[in-house]
């Protein structure tokens, strides 16, 4: 189908992408969660919107700040870690245990200063007092 792309990365991650004009594309979703028929239906809708409105709704700025850490872990990192890393389940578990307050935050809101503040608090909480 014209405009529908399946991107397969070296890690094995597969995603459906829609391209409505040269260089104008957006990811529809993870291939494990979105079937071919669903991807085709979304592509048809996007192409129709591009034809009538010139800018499909998928291209407009989203209301939210993007996926949360929990969604990223569940949909991308954990499947990759389990397949590619020895002890991958342990890495995912440590992230969940050490950052429970961050799990429902958008990834875009997690910054270097936030990580440094977390690290300083952790070091001060575990350092011995003399």
Structure characterization notes:
It is a single chain. This protein has 130 residues and is α+β, with helices and mostly antiparallel strands. It has 4 helices and 3 strands. It is elongated. The termini are far apart.
SSE arrangement, N to C = EEEHHHH
| Total number of domains | 2
Strand content bin = 15-25%
Give the integer mean of the pLDDT values. 84
- The outline comes out as elongated
Biggest beta-sheet profile: 3 strands, antiparallel
Give the tags:
46% helix; 130 residues; alpha+beta; 4 helices; 3 strands
What's the arrangement of secondary structure elements?
Blueprint: E1 4-8, E2 14-21, E3 24-30, H1 36-53, H2 69-84, H3 88-98, H4 112-126
Antiparallel strand pairs: 1-2, 2-3
Helix pairs in contact: 2-3
Report a brief summary of the structure:
The protein has 130 residues and is an alpha+beta fold. The protein has helices spanning 36-53, 69-84, 88-98, 112-126, and strands at residues 4-8, 14-21, 24-30.
